[in-house]
Write a structure and sequence with these properties.
This protein is α+β, with helices and mostly antiparallel strands. 44% of the residues lie in helices and 14% in strands. The protein has two domains: 4-305, DD-peptidase/beta-lactamase superfamily (Beta-lactamase, 3-Layer(aba) Sandwich); 321-475, 2-Layer Sandwich (Transcription Regulator spoIIAA), CATH 3.30.750.
Amino acid sequence: MISHVDGYLEHIMAVCCDNRSGAVADYIPELTRVDPEGYGLSLCMHDGHIYSRGDAGTKFTIQSVSKPLTYAFALTRLGFAETDDKIGVEPSGEAFNQVSVDDRRRPKNPMINAGAILAASLLLPPVRDIGPGLVDTVFEEVTAFYSACAGRRLSLDVDVWHSEAATGARNRAIAYMLDSFGVIDSDPEAALDLYLRQCSLQVTTDDLAVIGATFANGGANPRTGRQVLAPEVAQRVLSVMTTCGMYDGAGDWVTSVGLPAKSGVGGGILAILPGQLGIGVYSPRLDQHGNSARGIETCRHLSTDLGLHMFNLTRESRVTIRAVRDISEFSVGEDWGERERGYLRTCRDRVRVYELQGDLTFSGAESAMRRLESDLDDFEVAIVDISRIGIVDPVARTMLLSIKHTLDERGGRGMLVDPDGVVRRSVERHRNDEILPDLAAPEAFRGLDPTLPHVHTSLLDAVADAEAFQLKRRYGGGEMFGPG
């Protein structure tokens, strides 16, 4: 069964797939061989659950999306003081391959090529004659770190690595310029080789999404449970990605998308909503800034349609489900006959109450819906209690409305406890800005007590219908329940 989140992602991809602007990178010959129509999208939630659509399994080279990872590795290995002494953290406002240094002749930040090459050099020993064997050893350490962030072993695209090495005159010039400034302590050729290798590691959008979720979780990989890097390192990297990750398009990105992010000329984009999720997008046609044109549009829709902007002013709570219980603590009303009451006492566990809390945005609604869908075989009636919910954003509200559709498909029934009419008012406010067609709302009540008679009626109707069907097959008629 396709989830409602998958439905949102498919809708967004359908909107963006007609965007064929831009062109595949051609200054690295091997990158011209990719399919320009490739398009993949993945989301990894804070608990490690992944949603994947399109070409999410297609491998492509990570390219500049590697820069925050190597920067994180350098911060981990050398510490903040030594790394900051070599690389700044200020936006350059320039293209990724510009020779951009500050008044101390440090690269302005680690997200441009100059800063990334220097970050790679910090992982090498400070000697001038480094053989390929030592670069192999350090690259293995880099690969192991990247793989720990992705939750699986990554591999090198040797053809792309050789292609970049054969055509990397500008990057070689940057490396030797930094060497002439006295800021590279190791062999510039070895630093360049290590940088080009890291850029040639192969990833998928699933990998990028898991890497993003690892940083979003303060350095803990949600798929493996491993603490890959320290929370303070993750915080620093996310801060620099926010201001510098999208090069000379960073300002527009922060205002319109509002997520720490990094792009690569291989067509990948990594975006992160701190504390909640990671996003991986792949589409190889690039805009004038060297960012995936379709990927940028996709991220804008994700941010706007799913409410993912990091400055969304709702009070997001990760633990959206306050409690899950049945109705065994409630007595059966006297309105029913003894036979009906006896039956209802036996099936209280077939009703599940989900109490939600906090402000409900996409991440919280996704978590609640996934929990409900995983429990579908355990109940017939679901009651979603939003008495303790303050703000419900449009996507979260539509996901609440989808409960009825989900249960209808399974022969169940969904009810909503909405004492303040939050969902009803949200429906009226956002009637014209749906990203998916309207769904019929579940029955809504002002409290749990007024809901229970309707629950009991539903349970009795279901068993009566089943009994009547059996009697009709046997005898041509009959009912199970009569009055009193």
